[in-house]
Amino acid sequence: MKVINLHQEEKDIIKLAADNNRHAQQKIYSKHAPKMLGICRQYIKDLHLAEDVMITAFMKVFTNLKNFEHKGSFEGWIRRIMVNECISYLRVQKKVGFLEDEYYVEDTFNNIESHFSVDDIQSLIDSLPDGYKMVFNLYCIEGFKHQEIAKMLGINEGTSKSQLSHARKMLQEQINKQKNYVNGTE
Amino acid sequence: MEPNKLEQDFKHKLEQRTIQPTEMAWDRLDAMLSVTEEKKKKPNRTWMYMAASFLALLLVGALFLNQESQNTKNGITTDDNRITEGKSEQKTSVGESFKPTVTDSESIKQEETVAVTTTTVSNNKPAAFVNNKATVVKTGIVKNNMAPVLNKEAVAATTTNEAEKVKTGPAKINVDPAELLASVESPAVTDQVAATGKPKKQSVKVDPNSLLTSVEGELNDSFRGKVLQSVAKNYNIIKSSVASRNRQ
Lengths: 186, 248
Hints:
The structure holds 2 protein chains of 2 kinds.
Chain A: H1 2-18, H2 22-43, H3 47-63, H4 74-92, H5 118-126, H6 130-141, H7 146-153, H8 157-185
Chain B: H1 5-16, H2 23-116, H3 121-128, H4 134-146, H5 152-168, H6 177-196, H7 208-247
């Protein structure tokens, strides 16, 4: 009953926000902004820029609220808009290009015990070039398939796979470096 | 190529992460939303203006068309008016033209009667006053009473004077000829008696009714001709004016 009530409440708020009710819009923003800023931060190293992109994405959320059909989760819908906005930002503003190669190696990234904090993970991802970062985030964090990523980024599926392979290799190297550094200091 | 354990851990941890945006972020978003709302409102307004102007144009067009149709109708009505006016003018002109003819014929009659006798002045008087106002008749009587001139020239002068008065004065045909004759005759006769000393017998008896009818018959003939002429003239004027209006 509580879940149904919550769902109904969310529906009402969305309806109000779609009718430009500023209070409802603020409610939605307050509820989802912290998580969405985290997502934007995955793609954009600079927090301020990430916030700018998040605001632009929220603008799109509110202007397109009437198109939301309540079929999937509302958070998932906002998240998708955020990711698309981040990709758009990186491609347009940073002019991120993708090297069209189809070279990729099998996973060398297996079964490493993770003791990384969120900040460590973020710094590892930040160390990746934007192209690798995008594909890595889209594939590993957002859960898109290579076909979808290729479509989203306007690249070949093979390029998406090679980008992921390069990203993983790079991350592996970074993790190994950190391990060696930790072991060396011990 | 499936996400491995480490990547799953990354995903889990990153999904749980929240970063509190700065307080300014909402204000900026609020401002941006306000701007877009205003932008949205403006086109709506312009659309409203466009719709309003379109409606206004439609109204003006409808009014114009109505006026056009009314004008055509009015054109007919004005034509009718013109015709009626023309008719009334004709009537008036006929009335005016009627008067002089009456007086002319009367004066002729008077002259004829005067030529016959000098004492028939009083007899001729009622015929001369047939188409005059009562006031004119009275003044005429007064004149006759004051100046009992019995020669032909004087009579002719008075009749012509009175004819001029008749021309200017409005027409009143409904005058009883017998009464007039009697009223004019009696003082004239008494005056003559006073002047000559003995009463004069009327040598010629004039039947006022026959005189009047004969005069009326003559009048009707000339009247008809003039009416027809004026009708034809006015008809041509109206015809030409309507034609010129249609061309315009």
